[in-house]
C-alpha cells in the first residue's frame, strides 16, 4: 500500500475549505474512489507527491505538459520574463509574437484573441459566431466538453459525466433551449437537427477528435460531411482544439484530417502549463470582436507576460522539432497496441482508441464511437484498475471518460514499465469478480 498520510491530511483540510477539497471536480477521485494524491513537484515523466511517492505521469496536467514536466526551454523563458513584472494590463510585444506563431502553425486562424482558459475561448467563440450570423442557437455533440460556460453544460462529457450530472444545476431553461445536442459520429442525426432549425444555428462546435468521453475518433468522412453541411447552411464551424491543438500535429486535428474550420479554440498546450486560451479564425469573423466589432470580450490578465513567455517557448520548440510528433506517435502506438494485446491475452478484448499521442483503454469489448458506447464500460473494474496502476507508480486520469496524454518524456523503458503494470493491474481489477 502507498503511504498517503500527508495527502490524506491535506485532503481532509481542503474539504473544509474548498468544495469537495478540489478546484476542479475530476481531481476528487469520485468515480474511482479513494482520496486524491497531492502533488509536490515534477520533472520530466515523473511526479512526486507530498509523501514522497513517485509516479510516471500519463495525464500531464490533462494535456499541457507535452514536453514532460519542467522542460528547460519553457522554464528558462519564464525565468527570463519574471524580473520584468507579472502584469501590465497594456499591450506587449510577445502577444503579437504568439499570435504570429499561432497563425503560422494553424493556418485557418487569420486573427486570434488570447484569453486565460479553454472555457473562455469556447464561450467567446460562440458569442462571436452568434454576433457574426445574427442567429441564436448552437449545436454540440453529446459527450463533447467545451469548458464550463452555461451553454455547454448540456450533455457535457468528462467531469460532468463522471459525477453523473451531465446537466448542471444553475443553468437556466432559456440557455438550454439554445443548445442543440446530437450524438457524435451520427451524420443522419446531425442532418435532421440542422433541417429542423433552418437559419437558426449560429455555430456547430465539436472536438474534432474527442478526448472528453475517453478518446473517440471521427469516422471516415464525418468531418468532411460536417464541413460541407456548415458551408451549405451558413453555420460557423468551430473546432475545439483545446486538447488536440499542437498535439495531434503542429496544426492540430485540422491539419491531421485536412479540414479547414471557420473558427478554432485553443488552450492547454498553448500556455505551457500557465493559464492561456485562445480563439481565432477567419479575419471577417474575428473582426466582429471589440474594439473593431460589436461583440464584447475582454480580460484583465489576457496575454499575461509570463503566460505568453511559457506558451511561446513551448510552441516554438514544437514548431522547430517536428520529429517530436513522430516520436509521440510511436511511443503512444506502443502503449495503446500493448494495452490492447494484454487485454486480449487476458480474454478481456477491451477496446483501445488512439489518435497520435492520445488514447483510451475502454473497459468494454464493443467499439466506442460515441457517448452511449462509452457508457457501456465496466466502471467499477476501471476504478480497481486505476488504483492498481497508482500502486505501481502509474498516474492515470481518475476517470474512464478521459484520454491519456503522452509526453515526449516517456521513454521505451517507461513504456515497458507501463505495460507490465497494465497486465498486473488488469488481472487485479478482475480478480474480485
Ligand atoms: C479542457 C478543455 C476545455 C476547457 O478548458 P479549461 O482551460 O479547462 O477551461 C475546453 N474544451 C476542451 C476540448 C477541453 O479539453
From TrEMBL:
Q: Does this UniProt record's set of keywords contain Transmembrane helix?
A: no
**Any one Gene Ontology cellular component term annotated for this protein:** cytoplasm
Highest taxon above the source species: Bacteria
Enzyme group, top EC level? isomerase
State the PANTHER family in the record: GLUTAMATE-1-SEMIALDEHYDE 2,1-AMINOMUTASE, GLUTAMATE-1-SEMIALDEHYDE 2,1-AMINOMUTASE 1, CHLOROPLASTIC-RELATED
Which family does this protein fall into? Answer: Belongs to the class-III pyridoxal-phosphate-dependent aminotransferase family. HemL subfamily.
- Name assigned to this protein: Glutamate-1-semialdehyde 2,1-aminomutase
Organism of origin is Hymenobacter nivis
